[in-house]
Design brief:
The chain is an alpha/beta fold and 317 residues long. It is built from twelve helices and twelve strands. It binds zinc ion.
């Protein structure tokens, strides 16, 4: 049976009816409103529009932030405050007329990559999403790792250096503070100040520089930009080496907007994993780019909804 996956983002809400094989059969897309009431109305409208004309068994919302999936509740969502604390299941099920679950967007992406993407065919996968921040999701022994509150997989907030930069979560030296898109932007601004004759410094003199500017310059062969990405990739690899040791995955899929840089980040990460993770765990773990891209929210949420409605991962967890 088909299901609806909903990607609730800070700027847009996308819903799609998805077939059991992962084909998106229909879609609806709206800008994300600011108020909680309008947000609920818009999510419900997107579900109804996407499911119109299909026999649909359930829906799942992929939401950014700290999610207590077992309570279907969003505790904290820094770019989407309107969704915090709402009883999403109770509010939306009557409006949408479907059983509904909530999941963190990166955990949903992990499940999507496991079902339809970079990890399809594998039983053990770690997904790391490099965006403005860093999120993650872990599929262990064929199940999405949930934790007691349904909040497991906060891989971006593992400390990789005790005295490192302050992270958005309040801790110091999180992986997110070294290897996220915003960390790459911050590092580029520091490096630009140290190298006033560089292309990064010339760009910084005209406007604020961000992570994507570094990728742009690096792809055109700029040495300093390449070095900034290599440094971020090295820190990413420090984190991944830990995840390889802890979870013993077959596939480590790295996605998110900052993966526009692709191998310019991943090559350094792989090298670091080989230096730090334990053999033979490190030898089996394939570190590669995620493949679902911007569809990971809708496809991952749909895969979760389908597996929940068929007595899959939720009943087993
Ligand atoms: Zn943090």
């Amino acid at each position: 049976m088909s299901v609806v996956g909903v990607d609730v983002g800070a700027s847009k809400i996308a819903a799609g009816t998805v077939s059991p094989s992962g084909e998106i059969l229909s879609g609806a897309r709206y800008p994300t409103p600011n108020s909680s009431a309008e947000l609920l109305e818009t999510i419900a409208r997107a579900i109804l529009e996407a499911s119109d004309g299909f026999e649909v068994g359930g829906a799942c919302l992929a939401v950014p932030g700290l999610i207590l999936a077992r309570e279907n509740r969003v505790i904290y969502s820094p770019n989407l405050h309107a969704i915090e604390g709402i009883r999403l299941k109770e509010e939306l099920e009557p409006k949408a007329g479907l059983p509904l679950t909530i999941e963190n967007d990166n955990s949903a992406a992990a499940w999507g990559e496991f079902r339809f993407g970079a990890g399809s065919g594998a039983g053990h996968l770690v997904f790391v999403g490099l965006g403005t921040g860093i999120g993650g999701g872990v599929v262990a022994d064929g199940s999405l790792l949930s934790g007691v509150q349904g909040a497991a997989g906060e891989l971006g907030h593992v400390t990789v250096q005790t005295t490192g930069p302050r992270c958005a979560c309040g801790n110091r030296g999180c992986l997110e503070a070294f290897a996220s898109g915003s960390a790459i932007g911050r590092r580029a601004r520091e490096v630009a100040a140290e190298h006033p004759d560089s292309a990064l410094a010339r760009l910084a003199a005209r406007r604020p520089i961000h992570g994507e500017d570094v990728t742009d310059l690096a792809q055109r062969g700029d040495d300093l930009a390449l070095w900034v990405l290599e440094e971020a990739g090295t820190w990413l690899g420090v984190g991944l080496a830990g995840f390889v040791n802890v979870f013993n995955p077959e596939v480590v899929a790295v996605g998110g907007g900052a993966m526009e840089a692709g191998e310019l980040i991943l090559k350094a990460a792989r090298r670091e994993v080989m230096l730090r993770a334990r053999p033979p765990l490190r030898d089996l773990a394939e570190i590669k780019a995620a493949t679902l891209g911007s569809k990971s929210g809708v496809l991952g949420a749909a895969a979760l909804a389908r597996d929940a409605s068929s007595g899959g991962y939720l009943l087993g967890s």
